Amino acid sequence: METFNLKAIENRRITLGFSRKSMAKMLNLSNESVYWKYEKGKYKFNAETLSRLAEILQCSPQDFFTHSSAISEQSTRK
Predict the structure, then answer these.
(1) Which residues fall within 8 angstroms of residue 12, CB to CB, at 6 or more apart?
(2) Which of 14, 20, 31, 41 lies at a C-alpha separation of 20 to 30 Å from 8?
């Protein structure tokens, strides 16, 4: 079973040096707080936003699921 891995998104964002504020702007969200709610699981990413998120974070949307933990492993190796 696939599980959405929000920590992988946060880790990748930090690894690439993006702030929550910059992520909100790139995703056309109203502010940093809204992005934070997505990253913490308060709101759910829709397919379009998830695709854009993967583009920004230079990975595949599949990398956000536990069965494909390539970006999680990259973050923990550092």
Answers:
(1) 57, 59, 63, 71, 74, 75
(2) 31
Residue 41 DSSP label: T
3-class SS at 4? strand
Contact 27, 43 (CB under 8 A): no
Please give the backbone phi and psi of residue 58, each rounded to the nearest 5 degrees, phi first: 55, 50
What's the pLDDT tens digit per position in 43-65?
999 999 999 999 999 999 999 98
Read off the pLDDT of residues 17-44 as tens digits, 9 standing for 90 and up.
Answer: 999 999 999 999 999 999 999 999 999 9
The one-letter code for the residue type at 70 is: A
